[in-house]
Amino acid sequence: MNKKKKVRHSGKLKSYMQWPAVVAVLLVMLDILVFAIDVKAGFLVFCFTAVYWVLMSVLMLRYRPFVLREMIAFASQYSQIQKGMLKNFSIPYAVLDTDGRVLWMNDAFCDVTGKDSRYRKNISNLFPEIDASALPCKKEETDVQVFYNENDYQAHLQKLSMGDLNEEVSIVDIPQEGNYLIALYLFDNTELNYYIRQNQEQKMVAGLIYLDNYDEVLESVEEVRRSLLLALIDRKISKYVANLDGITKKLEKDKYFVVLKYKSLEELEANRFSLLEEVKTVNIGNEMKVTLSIGIGVNGSTYAQNYEFSRIAIELALGRGGDQAVVKDNDKISYYGGKSQQMEKSTRVKARVKAHALREFIGSHEDVVIMGHKITDIDSFGAAVGVWRAARILDKKAHIVLGDINGSIRQWVNLFLNDKEYPEDMFVTHEQARKIVDHDTVVVVVDTNRPSMTECSEILNQTRTIVVLDHHRQSSEVIKNAVLSYIEPYASSACEMIAEILQYFADDIRLKGKEADCIYAGIIIDTNNFMAKTGVRTFEAAAFLRRCGADVTRVRKMFRNDMSSYKARAEAVRHAEVFEQYYAISCCPSEDLESPTVVGAQAANELLNIVGIKASFVLTEYKERIYISARAIDEVNVQIIMERLGGGGHLNIAGAQLDGVTLEEAKDKLKSTIRTMIEEGAI
Asked: What share of the chain is helix, strand, coil (3-state, %, to 5)?
């Protein structure tokens, strides 16, 4: 026979309702103790206990259903109030299941989405941004930015775990894992985002515009037309900036200060600073095109800092050869343009000034330490030898820092090691250099301006006097606090610069034959036998070295390759592939080669002899690192390509080093970079 089921108390309420019975039992025990002490007193207590038992029984049996009904009614009303509050909640609110399916949504959510409360499809149908990956599966809550009906919303998703309900409710067994709901709140950030964008777009952007070849352009036009030419240039710049809702102020004859909005900078970056090309169209008979450099400073903490950023940016643009724009956004630096070849300057005034400054710095210190870049080549070595001779002319102790001596310079180094006229400490190791250098030592860095690429970067922090002599275009990484920085991207090589400096360093200076050979060899290598990036000053430097005893035949013999190197270079040329019609890409074998990077560079030069090739890239694996040698003639700036890969160099000669990738992965990365830059119009 089935028992009649009744609603019963449970949990803490049941315990609370049983307390009168517990008190009754205690009273009975008290009555027994009183009887044992005194019968009359015990009888009196018994009477009170009996009355308590009767009242307790009536209350528990008669009023218990009323208590249950009141509690159920209260719970029902409370639930309705909660439901009403959620339904009328001003913030759009919805409940999703674990897969993102909508289970319930309030009126505000219905108004925003325009859906009925019975809508039961997946939330991604409404907001594609909230896909399966955006749901808070592992995290307790997530935030997703969504765009719906031309409004910006922040969707806050929060897990509603059923674990707490399991603790409170004992009549239902709820699984602990995989059983939860998701609460979705929508916060309308449209107005906030609008004002944020407005604030960002109205930020002040400071800029400097310098004419690169002001004097040269004026000299190339008739004197009566010079004022007209300058007026046209001024008008071109002023009109361009005015169209961007900016202002222009001419500081000097060839320098301008501009102020723009951040919104205008976005437009400038989108058209890749078209002013660089537009100003070249100014032509009233001038034989030379006008080029300019632009430096932009943005997102500084103050207006003054923005101006300082623009000043640093314009120095970078000029140091990289001009005809380009540099944007400095705090620590981030972006480059635009830089496609044209830097025009060689005919004047040697700068070389003379730098030579005298170098003489003063070396003359006021006792020790001179010279170093080039890692994996020293003949240009770096020849320049170091030239500076070493300059220090010896002033009777100063000088040392050249060399790490591992590779095959490309070993025979050149042996020329000095086997000659007793040269001191034993002419070449020092990294450890010896660290012991020599102190605050009173002059450290001269040649053929690089990046601290990470120097032979021994630690000694840069050990001295207060650093001199940088380099012909590579500057990047965002520069040697800081250099007392003398002579960086000329127009120069063919560091050896050419040193040859010029030596001519002004002392009267009637004479170099020894092997020293002149080293410097001459550096020029030959970097100009590919005077075929690339040569100018009048290049040949003048070579003529000076010939007068000092450089022997062309002797140098040529030193450059001869062994059979394995020659075969490796031939293999690299034979297996080259043409990418995007104009770019030759190949891999150079490195087995049994002492200096595979040198062979790779030679192969890159060879590939430029193929008709139709604008740039060549040869990848070489050496000591678990991939080296890329990039070469071009005049149409492609390989430096900006290599910069995308973390490298740098010249417009026509550049390179990069990649770690943690295979040859094939490096080749794919190179191809992807070239393809992206072609699509952007950067090359």
From this structure: 45, 20, 30
